[in-house]
Amino acid sequence: MKIAIIGGGSLGLLFSYYLGFQNEVCIYTRTKEQADEITKNGLHLIKDGIALQPLKIAAAGIQDWRGKEQVTIVAVKQYQLSGLMEELKANVEDSILFLQNGYSHIEMISEIQAQNIFVGSVEHGAVRVNAYTVQHNGSGVTRTAVFRGESHLLRELAKNAPADFPVLLEPDYNEMLIKKLVVNAVINPLTSVLQVRNGELVDNPFYFEIFKQLFLECALVLGLDQEEVYLQNLITVCKKTEYNHSSMYKDMENGRPTEIDAILGYLLELSKNKKMKAPLIHNYYHCIKGKEQEREGG
């Protein structure tokens, strides 16, 4: 398949590396400098402390993307998406897959006139080491679903993904994204504020009490029917990634903006629209926003 990947962060590098062995992939980065580094050095991946075989891959600045590939994968952070919307609307022709956290991007992507629009939920852990190197910290799956259009290209993408980087097709995009939203809404802010790895949220009985209460508040705001199913999924994710730091923790640590607005910000807005009190969502949202402001010097 011909695949465009937009974004030179951890997910963009990770997807480019794994999909690049069996497909014709071009990664489009925010800066031409990063694209030049990838062209010069190839893509490097570190897994389980071992540097794997580098991969030579096409790379270009985002300004060179024209949407001619069969599938374009948008792997930027949720807060970066709005800055790309005009280019996405103008150029994408065939199919586009969005890999953002949260739920607030759904309204944005509905404005795009692409033939097929897909959304995804990534369960891998990854950290960008430098412009052309990514560290794969935790293997998982990529769940995808049709937002609008037909699924045949998603099926082809799944077929062309390597066995150790599976792409799955889910029947309901809403259920898939809500399940991921719950995971992000509990694990990300708690690990960031408490400064702990994911596993400590369930291993430490005092943190686990906060964990359960924040989950119950999220479930109430979202109107979840099968609370126990979502809670067990949340605990499973924590245990599977017990030694990992969450993406929000790493963003805070490295001085990057977080996706708190797309995650707890979305839930906070939803609670206001439903005229529901959500004190934990409110407090943890403002804790993260306060940390971001403090880091920016007030």
TrEMBL record:
E.C. designation(s): 1.1.1.169
Lineage: Bacteria, Bacillati, Bacillota, Bacilli, Bacillales
Record-annotated Ketopantoate reductase N-terminal domain positions: 3-144
Pfam families reported for this sequence: ApbA, ApbA_C
Biological process annotations from GO: pantothenate biosynthetic process
Organism domain of life: Bacteria
Any one GO cellular component localisation term in the record: cytoplasm
Keyword Transferase: no
Catalytic activity: (R)-pantoate + NADP(+) = 2-dehydropantoate + NADPH + H(+)
Similarity field: Belongs to the ketopantoate reductase family.
Domain Ketopantoate reductase C-terminal: 175-292
Keyword list, A-Z: NADP, Oxidoreductase, Pantothenate biosynthesis
An example Gene Ontology molecular-function term: 2-dehydropantoate 2-reductase activity
Enzyme class per UniProt: oxidoreductase
Name of the featured protein: 2-dehydropantoate 2-reductase
Keyword Nucleotide-binding applies: no
Metabolic or biological pathway, per its Swiss-Prot or TrEMBL entry: Cofactor biosynthesis; (R)-pantothenate biosynthesis; (R)-pantoate from 3-methyl-2-oxobutanoate: step 2/2
Purpose: Catalyzes the NADPH-dependent reduction of ketopantoate into pantoic acid.
